[in-house]
User: What shape does this take?
Amino acid sequence: MKERAAVLSSRIRLARNLKDTRMPLKMNEEDCKYIRDKVKTIILNNRTDLEFQSLSDISELDREVLAEQRCISKDLIRKYEISSFLTNEKKDLTIMINEEDQIRIQALSEGIDIWEAWTKANEIDDLLDQNLDYAYDSHFGYLTTCPTNTGTGLRASIMVHLPFLTMDNYIEKIASSIGRIGVAIRGLYGEGSESMGAIYQISNQMTTGESEEDIIRKIRAIVTQLIYRESVSRRKMIRNRKTEIEDKIFRAYGILKNSRILDLKESMNELSYLRIGVILELIDLDEKVLNDLAVLTQPANIKKRIGKPSSESDLNIKRAEVFRNILSEQEV
Amino acid sequence: MKERAAVLSSRIRLARNLKDTRMPLKMNEEDCKYIRDKVKTIILNNRTDLEFQSLSDISELDREVLAEQRCISKDLIRKYEISSFLTNEKKDLTIMINEEDQIRIQALSEGIDIWEAWTKANEIDDLLDQNLDYAYDSHFGYLTTCPTNTGTGLRASIMVHLPFLTMDNYIEKIASSIGRIGVAIRGLYGEGSESMGAIYQISNQMTTGESEEDIIRKIRAIVTQLIYRESVSRRKMIRNRKTEIEDKIFRAYGILKNSRILDLKESMNELSYLRIGVILELIDLDEKVLNDLAVLTQPANIKKRIGKPSSESDLNIKRAEVFRNILSEQEV
Assistant: This one.
C-alpha cells in the first residue's frame, strides 16, 4: 500500500509588506515600481537560482499556465499590469510582488514534507528581512492587506487526495470539525474553487495567536489524522465493495487510455480513481506521472499545447490525446 | 471499410408435420415418441454428421446454453420433457423434434450467405420427405400448428448490426415500411426479444403466396438495402460527428478490456461500438472474435463457465473477466 500517494504536495506562503510605504490598496504605479525594484534587486544580488519576470511581459495564456502549475496565484494575474515575480527553474520557490500584499513568498515541496517548504520560504524571508524594513507591529505581528493574514502572515497548506472519505460523504463533517480549530479544507485551486477528483487543500485559517512552527505542526498533524481516517474508510469500503472499486479503477484506466474526448471534470474524476489504483498497487504508475497529468491536462496547459485559439471541444479532444500519449508511454 | 461485418449470420427454418398423426397441440406422449423415433432413425441412418439428444437428458443450464448458441429454440426448451434434436458438431444444422411443430429444420450460415443455409436445410427436408409422409395440402401447402407458418413453412432470417440507423432513430420507420411487405425486424433472440447492441433479425412474416426462393430473395434484397442505408447513415454521421463516434468506439474498447463488472446490456452496447470500430477499421479484431464474444458472454454461457449456482452479480464479474481475457489475447 502506497500510503504516501495520498499526499500530493505541501505549500508555505508568507505575506509581507514594507514599513513606511502605502499599503497595496492605496499604492500608485510609482509605489509599485519602488517595491518591485527593491525586492528584485535584493533577490537577484543574492540568489542565482531565481529569475525575475513582469506579468505584463507574459501572454495571458502563459500566466494561466503558471497559475495551473501553482507557480503564481490568480490574484497576481488579476493585477498583471503592476505585478511581477521571481521563481526558480523547478518553480517550487516564488516571490510574488504586488499581489494582495506587496510581497508573497511561496515554497512548494513534494508529499507531506512541509518543513522543507518552510525552510525554503524562510531563507527568502530572512534575506529580505536583512535588507528591508518589514511592516511589523510588536503587538499584531506582520501587517497585511487582509486582516486574516496579519500576525505570522503564514498560510501552511497540504494538498491531499481523499477519495474514500469523499465517497463515504465524510468531507462535510470533517470540514465543520476542523473548521472549529481554525483549519480549512478547500478544493484544488484554493478559496472558492470546487473540489474535483477528491483533491483538497488543508490549510490554517488563523495566522495569529500561534507561532509559525505551531501552525505548521497543527496542519501536519491534521493531515496525518485525515490520512489515517482515509485509510480506515478505505479498508471498510474495500472490505464491502472491493470488486466495485476495482471496477471503477480499471474502467478509469481504460477510459483515460482510450477515449478521444475528455472534459476536465471527467478526467479529474478518472484520475482520482487511477490514483486509488496506484495506492492499492493495482496499477503500476509513478506518482510523478499522476501529478504531471493533473497539471498538464488543465485548460491553460492544454491551450498552450494546441498553440492557437481553441474551443472547449478542441480542448477536450487535446486533453484525451495527452492522457492517451502519456499513459501509452507507461508500462502498466 | 469492412462492409461485410454488418451481417452476422443467416438462418433458414422449415416447419413440418406428418400426415395421419395428431397435430402437436393434441399429441400425447406416445405420439411424441412415435415422431421422435421416426425422424431419429431416418436421420441417423443417412447422416453421420448429426447426433441425437433428448432435452430431458440435458441439464437446464445446458439447454439455455444451446439456445444462446442458437442451436435450439426456446420453444423446444419449454417442451423439454418430450422434445429432442439432432445437430452437427458446428451446430449450424439442427432438426428439432416436437417443438411447436413436430419437425423443425434449422440451418445457419455465416454472413449474408443465406443460400448456403437454404441448401443445408433443403437436403434434410428432401431426406425426410423421401422417407416420410409430410402433412401437405395441395391448396394450403405444408400444414403447421400456427397458421402463420402454413404454406412453405419457411422462415428466412438474416441477423444484421445496424448501429448508425439505430443512433439515427431510423429503425421504427424501417420496421413499419418493411412490415407492409410482410417482413419483420426484431431483436437478437427473435419474437418479443428486445434489441440489444443494435442487432436485429430481418425475417419474412408471410409463408404463403410466394415460393421459397422468392421469400429468400426478398429477405436478402431487403438486407442488402438496409446495409446500404446503414452505410449512408454511417457516412453522414461520420461526417458530422467523427470524433464523438471514435470516442465511443475507443471507450468501449477501454471499458470491455478493463472493467471488472459488466452487465449484459452494457456489454452488448459496448460490443456494438467495438463492431463499429472493426467496420471502420479503427480496431483490428477478427469478426469471429466479436461473434464469439456475443455468444460467450450471454447469461447461460457465463453460468456454465462459473460451474456453480451464481448470482446476477457473479455473472457480471465473470462476464467482465471473459471480455478481458479474450480481448487481451488479441493484438489490437
Notes: The first strand of chain A starts at residue 7 and ends at 16. Residues 310 and 322 of chain A are 16 Å apart (CA to CA). Chain A touches chain B at residues 243-244, 246-247, 250-251, 253-261, 317, 320 (CB under 8 Å). Chain A has a mean pLDDT of 93.
